[in-house]
Amino acid sequence: MNMTFKEKSTWLSLFATLVIFGDYAISLFSMDASVLSNEDMVDMALSYLGSAILYIIIIEVIFQSLIAASSRNKMDLEGDERDRLITLLANNSGYWVLSIGVILSIGQLILPHVLGIESLVEERITIPLFEIHLLLFSLILAEIVRFSHQVCLYRKDAM
User: Fold this and answer.
1) Fewest CB atoms less than 10 Å from the CB: which of 36, 81, 136, 137?
2) What's the pTM value of the predicted model, to 2 decimals?
3) What Rg, from alpha-carbon coordinates, does the chain have?
4) How many domains, the chain?
5) What DSSP assignment string belongs to 80-148?
6) How many separate helices (H) and strands (E) can be counted in the chain?
C-alpha cells in the first residue's frame, strides 16, 4: 500500500489519539468516588491529563519526524491540491463535532440552574472537573472525527 506523507501522518495521529486518550478516558472513568476524596480525584485526573498530553507530544514528535525523514520527496511533504481539499473537508466535519460538543457543554452548565436541579446533578456526576472534561472530550472526539474523515477520503481516493 503506497501512502503519501500526509496519509501516514494522519494514520499516526488517529492511532495515537485513540490509544492515549482512550487510556486517559478509561483511567478517568475507573476512579472510584466511594474510595477517593474529591481532592484526590481532582489530583489524579490532572495527573492523568498531564501524562496524556506529554505522551501525545512525545509520540507525535518522534514518529512524525520518522515519517518525514523517510519521505524523500519534498513535494510529498508539502502535499498537493488533493491533500489540501481532503484536509479542508475533514476540518469541516471536525469543526461541526466540536461546535456541537461546546453547545452541549454550555447547555449542561446552564440547564440545571434554569431548571433548579443543580444539587441533583451534582450528586449524580462523579467525574472530577466534569465541565472541563466534557469540553476536552468534545475536542478529542472532534479530532478523531477529523482524522477518521481524512483517512476515509484518502482511502476513497486511493481506489
Assistant:
1) 81
2) 0.85
3) 19
4) 1
5) -HHHHHHHHHHHHHHHHHHHHHHHHHHHHHHHHHHHT-HHHHHHH--STTHHHHHHHHHHHHHHHHHHH
6) 6, 0
Question: pLDDT by residue (tens digit) across 12-33?
Answer: 999 999 999 999 999 988 888 7
Domain encompassing residue 99: 5-158
In this structure, what C-alpha cell is assigned to residue 20?
492515549
Q: What are phi and psi of 32, to 5 degrees?
A: -100, 110
Tens of pLDDT, residue by residue over 61-111, are 999 999 888 877 766 666 778 888 999 999 999 999 999 999 999 988 888
